[in-house]
Structures are given as C-alpha cells and as structure tokens.
What we know:
- The protein is α+β, with helices and mostly antiparallel strands.
- The chain has one domain.
- It has helices spanning 2-10, 34-60, 66-72, 80-84; strands at residues 15-23, 26-32, 86-88.
- Strands 1-2-3 form a three-stranded antiparallel beta sheet.
Amino acid sequence: MVLLLAGWILAGNVVEVTLIQVLPGLAICFRVDAFGIVFALVSSFLWMVAAAYTVGYMRGLAEHAQTRFSSVLPWPFVRPSEWRFQAIC
C-alpha cells in the first residue's frame, strides 16, 4: 500500500479519510502527506531488514523456538502503514 501511494503523495497530493466526527470541528481521520509517506517507506524498509536479520540470528544461535518466533514476528506489523498515518484532523 505504501508503494502504491508513494508516487502520488510525493507529487504533492494529500489523502484524507474521516473515520468519525466526534464533535463539530473535531474528527478522527487518516491523513497521508509527503512526510508520512517517507516515514512509512523508511520504516517499512527497516522492518524488512530487521526481519531478515532475526532469521539469521535465531538460526545462528540454534534457538529451539524459531518457527514460533517467525510466525509471531509479523503480528504487530499487520497494517503498520495505516497506523503511521493516523492523525486527529
């Protein structure tokens, strides 16, 4: 999702989706601008590097729970790009 939006956002466009209107003038929404997309690209790349590193690290130490660790590793990152774009508009 991050790569799909990157070119369009870096061209100067902004994506904004309002989730709920809490009070008049106060809404909870997602807003993606150039800074948010750069942050998402950098953090996504670093997560991939860290995930690759952990596989080698766990195998090098002959850890007993490699499969369990590798299956649980991505859970906090299921939808990280959407979490990074959160804002109160």
